[in-house]
Every structure is written in C-alpha cells, then in structure tokens.
Amino acid sequence: MIEDEADLRVLMSDLLQEEGYAVESARDGVEGLRLIDQRMPDLILLDIKMPVMDGRMFVELLMARYPDRAPIVVVTAVESAPRRAAETGAEGWVGKPFDIDRLVKTVERHLRRPAPPG
Ligand SMILES: [Mg+2]
Fold this sequence. Notes:
There is one protein chain. It is globular, with a radius of gyration of 13 Å. It has a single domain, classed as 3-Layer(aba) Sandwich (Rossmann fold). By secondary structure, the chain is an alpha/beta fold. The protein has five helices and three strands. Strand 1, helix 3 (55-65) and strand 2 form a beta-alpha-beta unit. The termini are far apart. Magnesium ion binds at residues 4-5, 47, 49-50. Magnesium ion (MG) binds next to loops. Residues 1-111 form the Response regulatory domain.
C-alpha cells in the first residue's frame, strides 16, 4: 500500500492485517518502488495525491520496469476515483472516505493469487 497520510496508512494496514493479509506500506511512490524492487506484491493499493512521487508517476515507472506487475487499486477521493483509475490503467478503485467492506471486497476481487499447484 502506498499512501502519504500516516493515519490512513496505519488504519488500512491494520484493517487488512486483521483480514489476514500481509501488508507492507510506503508513504510515496519512491518508497513504493523500492519495496517492489525487493518483491512484487499480489496487489498494490495506491493513493494518487502524494508528495515526492505521486500515483500517476509511480504507475508509469512501475509499468516501464515491470511488464508483469501486480494489479493496482487506486484509493483516492470518491468523486475522482473512477476517472483516476481509468487514467492510470489501474484495475480497480476505492473512494475516500472508504468503507471497510468495500476496501476488503475490492482487494479480494483484484488480488493476484499464485497459480494453483500442478
Ligand atoms: Mg494523499
């Protein structure tokens, strides 16, 4: 998850960990790319408005570097969320202020799962 607001970062991280997900968080696109260079997650939750490197720039660099990137769900102001998702090429979106059920359902829907054995 890449989110610049500390409160929201901690809240989303706690909620998703309670749901059983392993969550790593970054506060801007630069930190996010650094984490992804270590390991590609199964899903990227992405804020758009962030200092240092915003969500759009992050997605451009991610796509250039990793053709086989994880699915992206943008988390941004509800009025612009669908448009932001379309602009960036993200698979999904969650509007802020977010609803916990919607966040979890959207993560579940877009999560890339490992291929089943055999
Ligand atoms: Mg932000």
